[in-house]
Design goal:
With 275 residues, the chain is an alpha+beta fold. It has a domain of 172 residues: Ribonuclease Z/Hydroxyacylglutathione hydrolase-like (Metallo-beta-lactamase, Chain A), CATH 3.60.15. It has six helices and 17 strands. The strands form four sheets. The protein has a six-stranded mixed sheet with strand order 8-9-10-11-13-14, with no helix packed on it. The protein has a five-stranded mixed sheet with strand order 1-2-3-4-5. A four-stranded mixed sheet has the order 12-17-16-15, with no helix packed on it. The protein is globular and about 55 Å long. The structure holds zinc ion. The site of zinc ion has 5 residues, from loops.
Length: 275
């Protein structure tokens, strides 16, 4: 059984998942391919890509978290928004994995030996040249153009990819049924809801895809999620045991069946409820 699984989304789009619950998208045009995110980097994501296309992909990160940019060191050149470039520092990547998995290993002790061996498989093959992925950057793949939308919040340099040809927004973690907004520089829920409402005014899009899961969300999910964030209160939220320094992480949840997921959630700190 392979480490990566490939899901064909449409004629020219693939979603490549790895067992720890994250996926990367591969977009094909007539002349070029674009790989959005590189996963944890434990195994070579270039291999499933090469099974799909002969075109060496342009590589980008939706943001700098270790489950999205961990495989960057397997490529010579990557695009990322400048605000997230500092997150690519190998020490900061390791810190993020330790934080993420410290919690996961507590909940699922069987992960400890698996992660130990996966960590040995990591490689720092390249120190990739980092190119700026600014707002409005166009990736012209030949007959298909994907445009980046800078959407700070989940991280300062998060970007969403807009594919007008398939009327789809590829949101990374920026729009998501389980949004993490508990980082030191996270916006308040109200601020994020306002940004989502602005995004919801984009014309010509019908659906959203996310990094963590195969579920396709209707475009209207953006507006729903903005309302959802504004319904969150301290009383309706529960405390999680996700480590976040001295600040407790809170979780607000609503049922997600209407959108084909078990629950819709947001994770944040008490400070995010201000304003
Ligand atoms: Zn993330």
């Amino acid at each position: 059984m392979g480490y990566f699984k490939t899901h064909k989304i449409d004629a020219d789009t693939y979603y490549i998942t790895e067992p720890l619950g994250v996926g990367a998208y591969l977009f094909l045009g007539n002349d070029r391919a674009l790989l959005s995110d590189t996963g944890y980097g434990y195994m070579d994501i270039g291999k499933p890509v090469a099974r799909i296309t002969d075109m060496p992909p342009i590589v980008m990160n939706t943001h700098g978290h270790a489950d999205h940019a961990g495989g960057d060191t397997r490529f010579k050149e990557i695009y990322i928004h400048p605000a997230d470039a500092p997150l690519l520092d190998p020490n900061r990547q390791k810190e993020q994995r330790d934080l993420l998995f410290g919690y996961a290993k507590k909940v699922y002790p069987f992960l400890t030996p698996i992660l130990f061996f996966l960590e040995l498989r990591r490689t720092e093959k390249y120190k990739p040249v980092v190119k700026a992925l600014d707002d409005g950057h166009l990736f012209d793949l030949g007959g298909r153009v994907l445009e980046s939308i800078h959407f700070p919040g989940h991280t300062p340099g998060s970007v969403i990819l807009a594919d007008r040809r398939t009327k789809t927004l590829y949101a990374g973690d920026a729009v998501n049924h389980g949004l993490f907004l508990f980082f030191p520089d996270s916006p308040t829920l109200r601020e994020y809801a306002a940004a989502l409402r602005k995004l919801a005014r984009l014309q010509g899009f019908e659906r959203i895809r996310v990094s963590h899961g195969l579920t396709e969300f209707p475009f209207g999910f953006i507006e729903y999620y903005a309302d959802f964030l504004e319904r969150a209160t301290l009383e309706k939220s529960e405390r999680t045991d996700i480590p976040n320094g001295a600040t407790p992480v809170l979780k607000y949840t609503e049922p997600g069946e209407a959108y084909g997921v078990s629950e819709i959630s947001a994770l944040f700190t008490e400070g995010s409820l201000a304003g």
